[in-house]
Amino acid sequence: MRDIYAIGDLQGCQTSFEQLLGRLPPHADLWLAGDLVNRGPRSLDTLRQVIALGERVTAVLGNHDLHLLAVAAGVRQAHGSDTLDDILNAPDRDALIDWVRRQPLAHFAHGHLMVHAGVLPQWDAEQVVRLAGDVQAQLRSPDWKVFLSRMFGNQPDQWQPGLNDEDRQRLTINALTRMRFCTADGRIDFKIKEGADAATDSLKPWFDAPGRRTADVTMVFGHWSALGLVMRDDVLGLDTGCVWGGKLTAVKLASTPAGRELIQIDCPRIRDPLATSDQRRNKMKTAEKAEDALKAAKAEKLDKFGKAARKLEKAAKAAKAEKSARDEKTEKVEKAEKGTKRKAE
User: Where is the Calcineurin-like phosphoesterase domain (predicted)?
Assistant: First the structure.
């Protein structure tokens, strides 16, 4: 089996993603914990790069990825903080959106269950995969736009076995892509976004909910940048806030915690949670210019190499032409000398 590295939220930070890939084995499989796009400056480039990695990649959908689908479907308004226009205006937009909507919401293999946000304490791994599969089937259907138009909202916020299809699917999406805190009986809190120290007597981080039925597998998730890196025997939280100036994290998955490997890349601060809208836009423009400058520098370096190669090639051709002219001149002189010699005889 090839090595598997699970990676936290990319959020359109392509430069950091490229740097991280450079630190990983070139043929390793990659598990991406959702939120591939949005808020970072290179959503389009990031998405195209992930797709280009082909079968190496297993990606689950996050809330930002579902938001992209909803905006593309025309059933949800874009937010002022979105950085999705490059995808929505791309010439290959339809192919990109089609790829995104065909990705799973949960992936279970080798004793590891990956979702973007969390799972309710009443669900075991098999039930998570089954519930996610129900939503995936709808997203992959011809009626996916109508389906998404009904999926946004906070109710129901608690699991009950008798939920109708629409309520069950909405609750599944909210748990797998939005949840941070919940109660022991599986009621989701949508307000608290701080780290684990914001827990109360009744609200706990979902992975600390008593009686959680996925405690027999290793959970892999992202979504919660305020939480930071979590590496427990049965829990891997990988959103370390790349877009906020934190790190982009990869962890090599292993059957035992001792076999894991942690790799992190320091990320430039693209977003400031305390900034005004104008400051955010200026920050984004600065980040885009910085990345453009980096790419331009790389292109210039390649162009210099190209110019040097062309100069050498031109010099070689000139030398060859000069040698050919000398040889031709020598040959004419030799012929003339032979003619003169024959006349003298």
Answer: 4-118
pLDDT at 333: 53
14: helix, strand or coil: helix
Q: What is the pLDDT of residues 137-183, one digit of tens each?
A: 999 999 999 999 999 999 999 999 899 999 999 999 999 999 999 99
Preceding peptide of 156 cis, ω within 30°: yes
Strand pairing report for 57-59 and 112-114:
unpaired
Decide if 215 contacts 155 (C-beta within 8 A): no
**The amino acid at 274:** L
Amino acid at 222: G
Tokens of 107: 């992936």
Radius of gyration of the chain (CA): 29
By mean pLDDT, which of 22-31, 74-83, 302-311 is the weakest? 302-311
Sign of the CA dihedral running 81, 87, 93, 96:
negative
Question: Do residues 176 and 118 share a domain?
Answer: yes
Of 234, 254, 271, which residue sits at a domain end? Answer: 271
Same domain, yes or no: 263 and 290: no
CA distance 266 to 207: 27
Residue 318 has pLDDT above 80, yes or no: no
Q: How far from chain centre, in Å, is Cα 231?
A: 21
For residue 132, which of 168, 78, 182 has the smallest C-alpha distance?
Answer: 168
Same domain, 203 and 249: yes
pLDDT value at residue 249: 98
Structure pTM? 0.80
Single-letter residue type at 237: G
Asked if 265 and 20 count as a contact pair (C-beta separation under 8 A), the reply is yes
pLDDT at position 1: 73
Task: Output the CA–CA distances (angstroms, integers) from residue 275 to 9, 43, 243, 278, 282, in the order listed.
Answer: 21, 21, 14, 8, 10
Does 237 share its domain with 345? Answer: no
DSSP bridge pairs for 247:
266
Residue-wise pLDDT tens digits, 147-157: 999 999 999 99
Q: What is the rounded distance in angstroms from the CA atom of residue 144 to the CA atom of residue 139? A: 5
- Picking from 271, 305, 320, the residue at the C-terminal end of a domain is 271
Both 157 and 264 in one domain: the answer is: yes
